[in-house]
Amino acid sequence: MASEDTAGAVRAIFSEIPKRLDPDAAEGVDAMIRFNLTGNAGGTYFVEICDGAASVSTRSSRQPQLTMTMSAADYVALIEGKLNAQLAFMNGKLKMVGDMGLAMKLPSLFTRA
Questions:
Q1: What is the spatial distance between Cα 83 and Cα 99, in angstroms, rounded to a whole number?
Q2: Are 76 and 4 in contact (CB under 8 A)?
Q3: Distance of CA 6 to the CA centre of its chain
Q4: What phi and psi, each to the nearest 5 degrees, are found at residue 96?
Q5: What is the rounded end-to-end Cα distance, in angstroms, of the chain?
Q6: Which DSSP category does 21 fall into?
Q7: Any idea what the CATH number is for the domain that residue 103 is in?
Q8: Contact 94, 1 (CB under 8 A)
């Protein structure tokens, strides 16, 4: 995937996050998640889940409960279902620091495209 294609895909994914949150599944969840995407088209994104809604920003004064780090290309593949999260984690392509319970719950909080 070309760098500009990856950058566009990353922007599209993060712009869809607020629309993809399942408010019923997110009831009672109050969390800040930091995504560190590395390589071409990388960047830092913060996803806040609170009161059954999600918001995305590139800055946060709030301490994240979970930080996930991976290449931007691998993140796009993960979201597109081309990369398995558990295998990515076991192979070192996905690094997570913080609340592992929240990490396990993330897939159930969002609907698939």
A1: 22
A2: no
A3: 15
A4: -130, 140
A5: 20
A6: B
A7: 3.30.1050.10
A8: no
Give which of 84, 82, 37, 78 is closest to 56, Cα–Cα: 37
Q: Cα separation of 23 and 14, whole Å?
A: 17
Q: What burial class does residue 104 get, using C-beta atoms within 10 Å of its C-beta: 0-12 exposed, 13-18 middle, 19+ buried?
A: exposed
- Count of domains observed in the chain: 1
Distance from C-alpha of 36 to C-alpha of 23, rounded to nearest angstrom: 25
What digits encode the pLDDT tens for the residues 67-113? 999 999 999 999 999 999 999 999 999 999 999 999 999 999 998 76
The whole domain housing 102 covers 3-109
**Count of CB atoms situated within 10 Å of the CB of 26:** 20
| The model's pTM | 0.91
pLDDT over 90, % of the chain: 89
Residue 35 has pLDDT above 80, yes or no: yes
% residues pLDDT > 70 (the chain): 96
Q: What CA–CA distance (Å, rounded) separates 98 from 67?
A: 6
